[in-house]
Every structure is written in structure tokens, then in C-alpha cells.
Write a structure and sequence with these properties.
By secondary structure, the protein is α/β, with parallel strands linked by helices. Helix content is 47%, strand content 11%. The chain has a five-stranded mixed beta sheet, with helices on both faces. A hairpin with a 5-residue loop joins strand 2 and strand 3. Helix 4 packs across helix 5 and helix 6 packs across helix 9. The termini are far apart.
């Protein structure tokens, strides 16, 4: 028989817990330095923290629990940089799993409040403000918004993968946006894969259905779109082959006014680099993540220092 030797080594020593977190708001960052890292100044970060405090406040009384401000800034750093979770964790002093949980919690909390910042102009005062704002740009009357679509790169989804390949050859979500004269989004549709045409996205969107069913006169205003959209009483597009001078003048004013939405998309993507590097999530969550970006962008413009 083989003798069995039992080693009595005693209990294994537990690895010491190391808490590395730090609150960037407590550091001596200037507003300019905060904007470079988080795309927001101190006052705006504090506003977002107060807005989401009830949703992000930890129920535990432990001294190591993440503060609301830490969760907000960790999430903003991720969306601003477009970096990997473990890089954000190393930068902020937390584990990758912690960053992932914070992002999910923060995003869900902010999405629930998106209607406070993305609003379609319905009241006479809002409609008049939008019409006057657009008219001052190029003299185009009765415009209440400009519409266009942009492709946001995503990771190839497991379900229905071919439909997400756009005409440029990469996987994306076709995000429709309508903005006002101040480059603020008033409507967003991020429900369609990259292969869908802009006209189809508009036709099936909530605002497209609303205008189709409720529009009665030009006094309600009109939306400007490019030649990829069908011309409707509520959706004005440029002349494809202008001949007369008045048609050329129409197209010139149309282009000058409509480029507001292209400029808005440019600001949006430049502000949040994640939209350029690619959203590494499945299509199940794409609409929510993108709506989050739009809500954040509106808040940044409304409450910037």
C-alpha cells in the first residue's frame, strides 16, 4: 500500500483588498482639464450627478462604496474616450467588472430621463422660435427642423448580421436625427440596422407617422431633408435638376439651412469618440446607448459652464 501523507498547511492566507478609487472632482482639475477628459465642466458634472442621484446612490453604508460623482465621471470617461473597459478601470482606479456595472446602471438611469432633453416642438412658442431661428440662417421660412441619418459603427451582432452591413461595407446602426436651429436634437430614431434607407427610417419613425397623419398646412412648419427623402408637404427636399433662377435660389437656401443637422452630427461624434471607434455592444442595446449619447449632448449644451 502507498502511504498517504497529509500536509497540514493551515488556512490559506487571503489576498489583501486594495481600494484604489479616486474622485476626480476632488482633484485640482480646472474646468478646461475636466472637459478634455470628460467632455463636461465641473458645474455640468455636478448637475448630472444631482439629476441621477436617486438612481445611482448606493444603498450600502460602506465607506468603500462608489459615490454618485465617481460613477458619473467613470461613465463619461468611457463615452468620451471610446476606450476599453479595463483601460477606463486602470485610469479611474477600479476593476473592469466595476466599470461594466457602473456603465449599465448609469446608462439605464439617464435613458429614463431622455424625454426631459429631447423634445419635439409642439407649442406655438417653440414652433415660432424654431421658425425664426432657421429663417435667420438663409431666409428659408417655416422650417421647424432638419433631418438626416448617420451611421454609427457597431460590433457585428450574432442575430441577423447581414442586415447591419451598410453601403460602406461595415456594421452599423442607421441613426436618424432631427435638430433645431441651435443644433439640439428634437427627435431621434436609432432602431434600424445600417442597411435601411434614410427614407424608410423616417417613414416608420414616430415623428414621420405623426406628420403624415396630423399635418394639415404649412403653418405647422416643415422639415428639411436631402434628396434621399421623398418630397412631401411636411418634408421639403431640393430640386434635383434646377433650371430657373428661383429654383437655384431655393436650393441654395435649402442647403445652407439643412447643413445644420450635418454640423450637429459632427459635434456629436467629435464630442463622444465612442461613436467613431465603434460601439462594442449587440444590437439589443444599441438604441439605448445611442439615445444616451444624444441626451448627454443636449445636457452639455444646455448646462455648459
Amino acid at each position: 500500500m502507498v502511504d498517504v501523507v497529509q500536509w497540514n498547511l493551515g488556512p490559506l492566507p487571503r489576498k489583501e483588498r486594495v481600494f484604489r478609487g479616486q474622485d476626480p472632482l476632488q482633484m485640482n482639475f480646472s474646468d478646461e482639464q475636466l472637459r478634455q477628459r470628460f467632455r463636461f465642466g465641473r458645474e455640468s458634472i455636478e448637475f448630472i450627478s444631482d439629476l441621477l442621484r436617486d438612481d445611482l446612490q448606493s444603498a450600502t453604508a460602506r465607506c468603500t462604496a462608489l459615490s454618485v460623482e465617481e460613477q458619473v465621471m467613470m461613465s463619461l470617461r468611457f463615452f468620451a474616450s471610446g476606450s476599453h473597459l479595463h483601460v477606463i478601470g486602470d485610469t479611474m482606479g477600479h476593476d473592469k467588472a466595476t466599470v461594466s456595472r457602473v456603465l449599465t446602471k448609469f446608462t439605464d438611469a439617464l435613458i429614463a430621463k431622455r424625454d426631459q432633453f429631447i423634445k419635439w416642438p409642439c407649442t406655438p412658442d417653440k414652433l415660432s422660435e424654431a421658425k425664426n431661428g432657421f429663417f435667420e440662417k438663409a431666409g428659408f421660412p417655416n422650417v421647424i427642423g432638419c433631418v438626416d441619418g448617420t451611421h454609427v459603427r457597431i460590433q457585428a451582432p450574432a442575430d441577423d448580421e447581414p442586415s447591419f452591413v451598410n453601403r460602406k461595407g461595415f456594421h452599423s446602426v442607421n441613426v436618424q436625427g432631427i435638430c433645431d436651429h441651435n443644433c439640439l436634437f428634437t427627435n431621434v430614431s436609432a432602431n434600424w440596422p445600417g442597411s435601411c434607407h434614410d427614407a424608410h427610417v423616417f417613414k416608420t419613425s414616430a415623428v414621420g407617422i405623426h406628420l403624415q397623419n396630423q399635418y394639415t398646412s404649412i403653418e405647422q412648419g416643415a422639415v428639411l431633408g436631402d434628396s434621399g427623402y421623398p418630397c412631401r408637404p411636411f418634408l421639403l427636399t431640393p430640386f434635383r435638376q434646377p433650371i430657373e433662377q428661383r429654383e437655384h435660389n431655393f436650393n441654395k437656401a435649402h442647403i445652407t439651412t439643412r447643413c445644420t443637422i450635418e454640423r450637429t452630427f459632427g459635434i456629436w461624434k467629435q464630442r463622444f469618440r465612442l461613436l467613431k471607434t465603434g460601439v462594442s455592444i449587440t444590437n439589443k442595446y444599441c438604441s439605448y446607448k445611442l439615445l444616451f449619447q444624444l441626451s448627454i449632448e443636449d445636457m452639455n449644451k444646455c448646462f455648459a459652464n
